[in-house]
Amino acid sequence: MPATNRKGRRPPASRRGSRKRSPVDRRRRRWWGWLFVTALLVLGYGAFWLWAAARLETALDRRFAALARSGFLVTVGNRTITGFPLAVTIRLTGVDIQARRGAPLVAAAEGMGVSWSPLNPGRLDVQLRGVQGRLGLLSARAAALSGTVVAAADGMRFALHARGFVALPGRSGRGGMRPERMALRLFIPDRSGEQDEEETALRLPLAWRVDVVMSDVGIGAPAAQAARRGDRFALIAARFAWHGPFALPLDRRRLAAWRDAGGTLELETLKLALAEATIEAAGTISLDERLRPLAAFDLALQHPAPLVNFCVAHGLLTLEDARLISARIATLRRDNPGRPVSLPLILEDGRVLLDTLMVGRLSPVA
Fold first, then answer.
1. Residue 265: CB atoms within 10 Å
2. pTM
């Protein structure tokens, strides 16, 4: 029965509908609901971003602290955290890492950036500028390095690409190898637990692995300029595997322990291409009782004359040694015409022997 007022009359239609919400009110309520949910999502993501930034900063600080505990002097300048909302980026200035003992080891960068994105949570992006590094007599620098770090079940993989890279620049800084393109890949195996003094190469099946590829390499000058005087390598590529205990810094005690545990550095491949000359090598490196390199390599040479001339021009071979090596190569070529010439390269007792000819001497590495 329809509702009536005191006089028995029904209320006007306008009054009957006043108790129901109008379409405008419903839309307004819906918009306020969406706004509230959006605000919650933004606040939640902001809290997540701050948490992720704190986690990345803590992980970076732990790496630096671990280096300090291992005997390195670590210096870091200013630090900023940016990248919201797509990534977390930590930028550092004046990063300097130096070994306090053992083989001289220095790594420095004018600036460093580490980025993590929730869109790709298993990867870190790394940017470095003004990079310099030195390990003993080996040194290198680069205007910039960019790369990625990916964590896997068996370890960590680094991939780096360099711009303005110079290896072995010499005291004046004007020489060295100057590739137009340079890429480096590094694999660090995951070894749970602390290393002990009883570790051997057989107990550690995983190895540190390094792959280096340099293309269009000028020696002592940029590639275009070096090519005019025959000092341009089309390719320098190498693959290494470090077997056995590994710890930094590499001092005499750690190197001796690595040697005694059966540790070796495997040169799995080395490829050089200079003009029409090519050389490929493979072999194993260890250390003798005086921590001098102990190694045996098999060299395969194709059209070696430009390479021999290059070694003479840069003081790597004397003219007399070059003549003896050329005569030996000519003899081997007559025995196997049309095939690569094979020569042994031996490092022992501090001597460098190419076939039976001594071409240099080596000192202890530490």
1. 20
2. 0.82
